[in-house]
Amino acid sequence: MHGLRADHNIGGLGTSRWLEALWEPAARLYTLPNALDMLDVSGDGDARLVCADLGTLNVNSPKIRVYKGGDQITEHNMVDPPCGVVGFYTENGEPQSSVLAVGVGSSVYIFKNMRPYFKYCLPHIDVHPKEREIWHKVGLDEELNVLTLADELDLLLKELGAGFISPRTLKFLSMDPNLRVSFAEQYKRIPLIKSNALTAISVIRRDSWNDPASSCLVLGTEFGEVLILDPRTFSVMDKHLLQWPPVAFACTGLWTGDGRILIVGRDGKIGVIKRGSPVKLWEKLPSPAVAVSPLNNEGIAVTIMDGTLIGFSSKGIKLWHVRVPGAILDSVSLPVPQIGLSLLAVSTAGYGIRVYDGKHHVDTLKIMEPVSAMKYGRMGQEERTMAMVTVGGGLSVKILKRTADFSIHNAISNLPLNDGSKFLVPKKTRLFVEQTIRERSEAKKIHSTFQQGLLRLRLMVAKKVVETLNDSQGAGPHPLTMEATVLGLGPNYQIRILLTNISDELSDTDLYIVCRTENTNVKPRVMDVPLLPSGIPIPIVLNAILKGRISGRVEILLCKKSKTKPVAVTAVVLPAAEEDIET
Amino acid sequence: MELFKALNLFNQGKYEDCATICTNLLKKNPLNQVQTVWVLKMRALTLQIYVDDIEGEEEGIAESLLDNYTISSMPRPGTSLKNPGTSFTGQYLRPKTQSGRPLTGVVRPATQSAMSQSIEQTLKTPRTAMTARPITASSSRSVRLGTASMLTEPGGPFIQLSRLNISKYASQPCIAKPLFEYIYYHEHDVRYALDLAVQATQVCQYKDWWWKVQLGKCYYSLGLIRDAEQQFKSALKDSKTIEVILRLIRVYVRLDQPLTALETCKKGLEYFSNDVNILTEMGRIFDSLNNMSMSLKYYKIIAQEDASHTEAIASIGIHHFYNDQPELALRYYRRLLQMGVYNAELFNNLGLCCFYAQQYDHVISCFERAISLSTDETMADIWYNVSHIALTVGDITMAEECLKLAIVSDNRYALAYNNLGVIQIRNGNITAARTYFHAAANIANFLYEPHFNSAYLAYKVGDLQTSYIAVQKSLSTYPNHADSKTLLNKLERYFTYM
């Protein structure tokens, strides 16, 4: 085995189903889902890990990196950030090196033996006839009338919307009117084109189940098309128009036979295409999809951004949905044909990688950091390897043990669904029953005593309220709240007062704060209150110094200049200070 | 004759008179001839201000914030007092005190200390409560004891510690022990006391367990917790006493190792079966671990052993009250009343129990008595409870007035602000309600109610982002709050909506 060391001591704990092969936290690899693949690029039967590295924010140079085990062997610079990498074979049954396809911008770069081999450009989109007409007319005219051109294009923009206008027009309209002349002069005779952009890339087997077998490239474009390319000539075999941009594919079967491509759109639409039949829309997901993976029984699992995992049957019927804790970052299917299972690994933020068998959670892989992209397949000589790239740029490789058994958990996870949860409700005591008997026999007396008491209490509360709160507090035209906090260790304290105007208008202007103190010096003792806006707490800070060694008390009075009674009063206690804190 | 009189007075507990006679005797004779009198005076002065310092323990701000004996800063739930965890949550959620601890049956040392994590919260919350919390544990005692010694000795201190020949007295066991107690309790000079204890224990070749305990006490009050633990353990090997066991438990509680403390309690119970003091410690530790059922079990054993144990009865009472059995709680509180406890808190609790047990004829009279007995500290609580009764009766105006009275008596009463906010929503004053919720959340961010309320209000108004932030705070203080979860789900649907 090359480069991959199965370290039994670290990951080989009895309970784990995975062997720790590699953990390289400083790989500085930044990848998103769909940008990882494992393929035999050199033809020596040894699969390498190929990943599209987006680079960090400041070093904005996307690269394709090829790893052998934990060591990087080659690196290829890219012009634009790739939207995905896939590997495939061009011939049936010939053990040769596989071809790497990288989707970038509006083209697909094909590498053979890790050398540039071919560049496939997406066909241009037809420009709207009216726009073409306008630019054509400008090209014919000798005299350039920029104002008319701008008016016409502006009208067109309003009519069609920016999505259907060519970049040239948009650029023209966004320019400074003085610069438009030179721009129009420069471009008016050049034919108007509108280039397409690649949104997703995938592969589907062409006509053979043997390994290796030739596969067709599946390309999704921003314009809403799906293109199937012939593996030898790189010409379009089939073309499907969707009207909505696809973002992810899941391909099953043989394209020339009964193969199907499941498509998830950016707006959450999910549909399926077959060769020769138009797209069949299944349904619209409640939120954008993260990833889509095929399961063994022709079913499909889709993870979506609101944290759910949805299973669909091959007919597009929603079978189950599971809530996954934490945000989903990626998901990938783990086919284990030896035990007849097709598991699904879902990478979550904060909860590790959770492995599901259908809707049952069977295992959790703990990784140091959240995993942003992963790929399961053959790496080196090892068939069941999972490569993971973490958010922090680390690379981790784990190997699924041959002895791994996922059936035990399956049985357990079925159980708790059946029994209903029991509530702990304390029983009513005999005492309670006796009391109810008393209540029944003396209902009249109890009621009248309570009502009398309540009246008394009401009176008492009303008296207290009149005593302590005066008319302006609470019920006045501009109610205020005041809360005071003491900060500090003493003997120097800080009193922080928060004044809030809880009416919907501005407060009165002539308010001020006075402190009435015991054992304390407060500075300043009197302070004007600024105009208080509605609902925003305004902090006011006072400094207080204890005079003696016993605790002090400060009464803070909020007063109005024309009134004798304070608007609000609150008191704080300053705790006794430490005798001396030795330093 | 004089000496006999002094001894007699000492035995009668009239320490002050005894000390005066001793002073006179000492004036007449030089010190080395009347060592007996000297020792007697020391004893008399010490016993005047002798305190049971096992109980008088309050963790100060400096200890809770700056000392770091804890082994793990993120302990597993249920293994630490700072993170009691949700492993044992009963079927109810107790309200929290001003510093954020769940309410206990009685106010006892360390129920005031906050669980807060941030420095500002630690400095803010407890010190603005009506009873200010000391900064360090040693200061609260030393201030009190220091003033005591100053008052009793107008003509200068009885013993000049700086001039004391410690090594000489350390070699005389019959003098060393009273002298130690005098220095420790009367003068409260831990460093001299420690010096004496170290030399004395060397003299007796580390065989006297008493000196080991004293060493441990000194280390403990100096903050050298691990050394204290060693001394107490070594003392326990020599002789098993309840005092030392209790002190060792305290050491573990201070070290934030409740499970070890419980283990120590169980070992202690093997020697002193059903000892009320040790059982009380166990009840308290389980209480602070939020394991109410175990706590209840131990308090019940205590109540069987000592039928007039106030703490046990009050704790059982509060458990029944929050366990939806107010009629049982009423029984326990009535028992406290029969025992002669007569204060505002008890009448307040009796009133609440009567109200929730539907014994309406006693409710009002209990609250009236509570109000008439109340002090500044308890006033706010009583008004808050009265506001609940007003709400249940349906008198919103009265409830609002009561809540305002609660705020007047304690302007940091977060729950009162919260409830005022709810009433303001009913009245249609959205701005006022929002301000009240914010005030409540600012004062006590360990309460989930204000966070949830402001989240709900923001949600209704349409401010989804604010609502989301507030509901997350609510869930972080109370992760299982069903309403918050529902609200969060609704919000998430909005945010993921396409």
From TrEMBL, chain A:
Matching InterPro entries: BBS1 (IPR028784), BBS1_N (IPR032728), GAE_BBS1 (IPR056419), Quinoprotein_ADH-like_sf (IPR011047)
UniProt domain Bardet-Biedl syndrome 1 protein GAE: residue ranges: 481-578
Domain of life: Eukaryota
N-terminal signal peptide: none
Pfam families assigned: BBS1, GAE_BBS1
GO cellular component, one term: centrosome
GO biological process: non-motile cilium assembly; protein localization to cilium
Record domain Bardet-Biedl syndrome 1 N-terminal: where: 18-274
Molecular-function annotations in GO: patched binding; smoothened binding
UniProt-recorded name of the protein: Bardet-Biedl syndrome 1 protein
Automatic annotation (TrEMBL), chain B:
Alphabetized Pfam families for the sequence: TPR_8
SUPFAM superfamilies noted in UniProt: HCP-like (SSF81901)
Chain positions of TPR repeats: 344-377
Keyword field: TPR repeat
InterPro entries, alphabetized: BBS8 (IPR028796), TPR-like_helical_dom_sf (IPR011990), TPR_rpt (IPR019734)
Top-rank taxon: Eukaryota
Entry GO terms, CC: BBSome; ciliary basal body; non-motile cilium
GO annotation terms (biological process): non-motile cilium assembly
Record's protein name: Tetratricopeptide repeat protein 8
Record organism: Melipona quadrifasciata
